[in-house]
């Protein structure tokens, strides 16, 4: 056997292997795309069927959501408001600590503390949401009841706090990326003009990265809007229009999670209501993701401007 | 190298195939077939009792396995009638529609009453302002579209604190029963409260707020006795708490009901199902009160034992099959009658 023969055989089998690998990757890509199309298709199909029985006007204007009661009402506003409350509430708790952590990591921390803080942040991202849910239910709510004795066992505030904790790593990592992409020349120019380091960070670098920071917050809020387990466990299931964070509420996701366990035979109106609610959730999170991505992708150009 | 990767692939498929076959054989809990597995499904109100029976049964017959599921009374009976489970636990008797469906699939059954249960109205232990509610007040509080929001709305002497409400979900037999008795119509209820099929979540919710109120089956209350306070109910003859005595002698009526197990006549031929049903009757008689129910009169248990023994004998005689298929309708009716007492 000569060297030439060996390498020839090697080339042939490698070509075969590469062709095989190429097909395999294509197959994976097709599966992913087809799944996405099928999901949107089924969601859209069932939602359209739902709206043939419940008019969109009623769906978006009524303020009661009681699909399983003897007098079923399909007003999605209480669910939508609850999702908004959780999303905005979580952002309120996550934005300041998240952005400040990012600024600290990028501009103040030495290598060792940056590593420690970075590890701690990614640990937060690794906590399963069911654990967060029980933390909210068994730890946060009892602690809050010391401050507000009238708080309900299932309430929006504990869910907001813990969802805020859950989205914190997203804010930190993406905001840090945004800060990182601000050109070093801005910092140097600021310092050269005689400004202190703090002043440059607050007046120059953060404004320069603001677009990316806002993008990171919007993306984190999209995660909060889609969060299911924490709100299912901790926030309750009363679909009512309330802005009181001490009361129980029911988000879009929690409705799907809690009610699809029970008896909603396929083909019934209640079954289709899951899809209609799912479609609303899909639109809300998709728009937020799109906005967030857009803000993030433009940030380098704006930073350079 | 290619060969190696293919044999690796082959091994993977082999493992997947073996796993699939094993799963097909063991993942489903097919009643009767395995000969050792008893599947009980149905009402959450009977869950505590079924679990106690399963534990004792496992001690007496370690060779058999028991699975207890909670699909609600309706769900359990539905699965029972298509032969998916051996025993259905129900907090009510079968409706005529359910019985017809059962007969249509050729499934004869015995309905055996096992215990009496009450619906406990519970509050936070720290709420000393109220200790008794009338049926009329319950109706005012829970009716569809109820305007009652604070305790003062219910009774002017009570504090103007918001009532946080917790109750069973619409899948639950307890919800059906409560609404039937209190509102006069099954399913008639306000819908702006916390609803769940899980008794422990109701207990947690009520225990978590000083001005909360909820209702659960009496076993659900008994399991959470240390963190809840049970209210007395005035049905027109004074305030009565759902104690085992009050449940037994009917003074807590109408918020009491009998609980049943449904056993398939065909399943009784199998030793494990028959022995489990016998164990269920024996355990209920002894332990019902301890777990939070009220026992039935001794005569009811004696009759159930006779009924089971008779069905067992009928099922194990050779001509049983022919006879049963001939008199299917009559047997079904008889079982229903014996159940409704």
Describe what this molecule looks like in 3D:
The complex is a heterodimer of chains A (305) and B (341). Chain A has 305 residues and is an all-alpha fold. Chain A contains twelve helices and no strands. Chain A has helices at 3-53, 56-61, 77-108, 111-126, 129-147, 156-180, 184-192, 197-208, 210-226, 229-234, 252-259, 269-304. In chain A, helix 1 crosses helix 12 (269-304), helix 3 crosses helix 6 and helix 9 runs antiparallel to helix 12 (269-304). Chain B is of the alpha/beta class and 341 residues long. Chain B is built from 14 helices and twelve strands. In chain B, the strands form two sheets. In chain B, strands 1, 2, 3, 4, 6, 7, 8, 9 and 12 form a nine-stranded mixed sheet that branches. Chain B has a three-stranded mixed sheet with strand order 5-10-11. In chain B, helix 2 (47-60) packs across helix 11, helix 3 (72-81) runs parallel beside helix 4 (96-104) and helix 11 packs antiparallel against helix 12 (298-316). Chain A binds chain B through residues 13, 16-17, 64, 66, 68-71, 141, 145, 149-154, 236-240, 248, 258, 262-263, and chain B through 1-2, 72, 74-75, 144, 161-162, 164, 169-171, 185, 187-189, 191-197, 204-212.
Key features of this structure:
heterodimer, A: 305 residues, mainly alpha, 0% strand, B: 341 residues, alpha/beta, nine-stranded mixed β-sheet, three-stranded mixed β-sheet, 14 helices
